[in-house]
Amino acid sequence: MKKERVSAGLLMYREGERGLEIFLAHPGGPFFANREEGVWSIPKGVPEPGESLLAAAEREFFEEVGLLSHPPYIDLGNIRQKGGKVDFAWAFQGEWVEGTVNRCNTFKLEWPPRSGKICEFKEIDRVGFFTLKEASPRLKETQWPLVERLVQALG
User: 0.85 cut: is pTM over it?
Assistant: First the structure.
């Protein structure tokens, strides 16, 4: 039997003059360099063996954007990505000052393809807070229900 692929992530939000804003991450690397719509995501990743989903979400958030998260968390449940992976998510209220994220995991990839040259890329190349209207075209379509659940939970 094939093991189900899962990931866990955190959706940071804030409420201010522009209303509700959500914190999203743009994937690094050459495949998404010139794409804006439908590729941004909540920071998330795969749990380590024996690691709880929430602990994985907290760890991945820090590894990908360099920010610590904190309770209380709002359980947003899960969604299934187009490729079949199940994403579990929690939301928390937090703050970020533009330009303060200074760390991120990297990955290696042969680029350009079949060149023999191995390049290193950041997993996340940009992050930011967006209003729901700004986030709508950017966020992966399959993750939008997580945002809707946050809005519902906040009333």
Answer: yes
Residue 31 above 80 pLDDT? no
Q: For residues 54, 96, 63 and 109, what is the CA-based torsion angle, rounded to 10 degrees? A: 130
Domain residues of the chain, as ranges? 6-154
DSSP 40: B
Q: pLDDT value at position 36?
A: 78
Burial class (CB in 10 A: 0-12, 13-18, 19+), 132: middle
> Distance between the two ends of the chain, CA-based, in angstroms?
41
What is 6-154's CATH number? 3.90.79.10
Q: Quick check: helix, strand or coil at residue 135?
A: helix
Tokens of 120: 């290193």
Which SS3 state, helix, strand or coil, does residue 133 take?
Answer: helix
Tell me how far apart the alpha carbons of residues 70 and 93 are, in angstroms, rounded to a whole number: 8
